[in-house]
Design goal:
The complex is a heterodimer of chains A (about 280) and B (about 325). Chain A has about 280 residues and is α/β, with parallel strands linked by helices. Chain A contains ten helices and ten strands. Chain A has helices at about 1-25, 45-60, 75-80, 130-140, 165-170, 190-200, 230-235, 255-265, 265-270, 270-275; strands spanning about 35-40, 60-65, 85-90, 105-120, 125-130, 155-160, 185-190, 205-210, 220-225, 240-250. In chain A, strands 1, 2, 3, 4, 5, 6, 7, 8, 9 and 10 form a ten-stranded mixed sheet that branches. In chain A, strand 1, helix 2 (about 45-60) and strand 2 form a beta-alpha-beta unit. Chain A is elongated. Chain A starts with a helix and ends in a 10-residue tail after the last helix. Chain B is mainly α. In chain B, about 75% of the residues lie in helices and about 0% in strands. Chain B has helices spanning about 20-65, 70-75, 90-120, 125-140, 140-160, 170-195, 195-205, 210-220, 225-240, 240-245, 265-270, 280-314; strands spanning about 80, 85. In chain B, helix 3 (about 90-120) packs across helix 9 (about 225-240) and helix 11 (about 265-270) runs antiparallel to helix 12 (about 280-314). The longest helix of chain B has about 45 residues, at about 20-65. The two termini of chain B are about 40 Å apart. Classes of the chains: A alpha/beta (about 280), B mainly alpha (about 325). The interface of A and B includes residues 76, 163, 181, 190 and 204 of A.
């Protein structure tokens, strides 16, 4: 496998050298060839698929295979040499709660992913503070009336440990606070879709989800008085968001670099990426 | 393609075919027969190979757990906290067993009753109507049952019990019972139908009522077949994942009440497997749980084979 990669790479390099010296004026992007494998986060998958479609149209000789499983599988696949790019909802080159850093990997920011706290539509509460959320998820606050709502038990719905959404929500919304399992009124879900269905169908439920998933059947609550909108993320007032990363083994080269460059390019960030309801990375400066 | 049955028609129509023609035909049949034999042999070998690979690969990864934590920890501890490297699977094992027991408790009486109805009591037109419906129910994908459980059953349970969440063993047990019901009913139906008519005739001749015939003669005679049906339903209940995951609450803890959000072996594996690192104790522990499920289902299938043999002898 390694040998094969080496050969591919040297062939790629040779092709590059030849085209660079002879073709000269010919478009450099069009001469790219090779196969790029992207593995990892399901949250970033729609973005990767769209970018791959556009990139392959410009570079017909490049083949991109993308699949989504869980965030941590991204950097893992890169480590094992299975994938060239590992899509991950957190920066896997540093330690995060529950996961050690993947040494030697480079995190390339590709998008901004906002998250929202959601509640069932029967919940009267419109705003929750960091402290209130920490209380709810640690099990200290168990009734909606303690945070200004009706007298009803709070049903906590969370993602399973290891989910990228959970890692980010815990770090940003709960400011590192714990999510403690309970014997009652507590449920874990396996995906963003399940989370939404569970919150939408369970009265008095609270949960969290990527902002793009929020729709009419659940209610997004304000965080410290600020509504969860892309506008508020960009102007810096809404804090629950995270970068999505493409992890690579060392600095990306060749076709992989060109692909990441394309995803980070103004054309893609301002065009398709925005249409998919992600936020361009340049907006956060 | 290959039709080895032709071989049985002797190629002796010498008046129609020349000698060379017959020989060529004979040769052709010989080749096709040999080919077919090896093809069938190959097919079964492929299946055996796949089975062996499943056992070897799941088992190999599972065995890596032994170097990381003690088996006593895995089987006896109730503390499953991957973030603190605690991998006690006792809660999942007990939940799996109690969920299966609950499922059978709900489904067996109903499904055997249905089998008796279709095999003994119902008029022919009703049988013709019920059997295809049961067959259809067997074929419904489990995710559909799970979704119905989530959107229809859970709200009903919440209203009936006053719980805020409703997820737990009872919800999962009800969904699973519905799922295994047609399986048990159809196979029990076959077992009851297979009871020789002379048994019934003899019982009626001795003055039995229909209920007596069913309870004292037909059901005992079909007992082993019904037991096999129940065990088959049990294997489905133990291995079922998607329907369970949607209504059980997926919380790694022991289900002390029917409404405690809990997790079983299958649901815990499917919830966590996409978020684990390959070379971690966590991953090995999940594989060990899968291996355990494999062993349980092998054991149950062995029991079914054993029962089947006994029945033929008896």
């Amino acid at each position: 496998m390694k040998l094969f990669k080496k050969i591919t790479f040297s062939a790629l390099a040779a092709v590059f050298a030849v085209t660079a010296s002879f073709a000269g004026a010919a478009s450099a992007a069009g001469s790219l060839s090779g196969k790029i494998t992207v593995n990892g986060s399901t949250a970033l998958l729609p973005l990767t698929l769209q970018a791959a479609k556009e990139f392959q149209k410009m570079n017909p000789k490049v083949r991109i295979a993308a699949s989504g499983k869980g965030s941590v599988t991204g950097p893992q696949a890169v480590k094992k040499g299975i994938a060239d790019i590992g899509a991950c909802d957190w920066d896997a080159s540093i330690d995060v709660p529950g996961f050690k850093a993947f040494s030697g990997q480079v995190a390339n920011k590709v998008a901004v992913i906002p998250f929202a706290t959601i509640v069932n539509k029967n919940v009267g509460v419109d705003n929750l503070t960091t402290e209130q959320l920490r209380g709810i998820y640690s099990g200290k606050i168990t009734n909606w009336k303690e945070v200004g709502g009706a007298d009803a038990d709070i049903v906590v719905i969370t993602r399973a440990f290891g989910s990228g959404t959970r890692v980010n929500y815990q770090a940003k919304a709960l400011a590192g606070g714990d999510i403690v399992k309970k014997e009652k009124n507590y449920k874990e879900t396996g995906s963003s879709g399940d989370m939404k269905t569970a919150v939408a169908t369970t009265p008095n439920a609270i949960g969290y989800i990527d902002l793009v998933y929020v729709s009419g059947d659940v209610k997004a609550v304000k965080y410290n008085g600020v509504a969860a909108t892309t506008g508020n993320v960009i102007n810096g007032s809404y804090k629950i968001w995270a970068y999505g990363y493409y992890m690579t083994k060392g600095q990306p080269t060749g076709a992989v670099k060109a692909f990441i460059d394309y995803v980070q390019s103004k054309k893609f960030q301002q065009g398709s990426l925005k249409k998919l309801k992600f936020i361009p990375i340049s907006a956060m400066k | 393609m290959v039709q080895p049955t032709y071989d049985s028609t002797p190629a002796v129509n010498g008046s129609l075919h020349s000698k060379g023609d017959t020989r060529r035909r004979h040769f052709r049949h010989l080749v096709s027969n040999t080919f077919a034999r090896y093809y069938f042999l190959f097919s079964i070998l492929v299946l055996c190979l796949v089975l062996a690979l499943v056992i070897v690969f799941i088992g190999k990864t599972a065995m890596l757990l032994l170097g990381q934590i003690s088996l006593a920890d895995f089987f006896l501890s109730f503390n499953w906290t991957p973030e603190e490297d605690k991998f006690g699977a006792a809660a999942f094992i007990i939940n799996t067993l109690s969920l299966t027991a609950l499922t059978l408790l709900i489904s067996v009486p109903v499904s055997v009753g249905m089998a008796v109805l279709t095999a003994e009591i119902a008029p022919a037109w009703l049988k013709r109507f019920i059997r295809p419906i049961l067959d259809l129910l067997v074929g419904i994908p489990s995710i559909v049952y799970g979704y119905l459980g989530l959107t229809v059953l859970l709200p009903l349970l919440r209203r009936a019990s006053g719980e805020s969440l409703g997820d737990g063993l009872l919800a999962a047990g009800l969904v699973l019972a519905l799922m295994v019901l047609p399986t048990i009913a159809r196979i029990s139906d076959d077992a009851i139908t297979a009871v020789p008519g002379k048994y019934r005739d003899a019982a009626y001749a001795l003055g039995s009522t229909r209920l007596q015939v069913i309870l004292r003669v037909v059901l005992p005679a079909a007992g082993r077949g019904i037991l096999a049906a129940v065990i088959l339903g049990m294997t489905r209940a133990i291995g079922e994942t998607m329907a369970v995951v949607m209504v059980i609450g997926n919380t790694p803890q022991l289900a002390k009440t029917l409404f405690t959000p809990a997790s079983v072996l299958t649901s815990n594996i499917v919830m966590q497997i996409s978020n684990v690192e390959f070379d971690s104790t966590w991953n090995y522990a999940l594989h060990m749980m899968a291996f355990l499920l494999l062993l349980i289902s092998f054991l149950l299938i062995l029991v079914i084979r054993f029962l089947g043999r006994k029945r033929r002898e008896g």
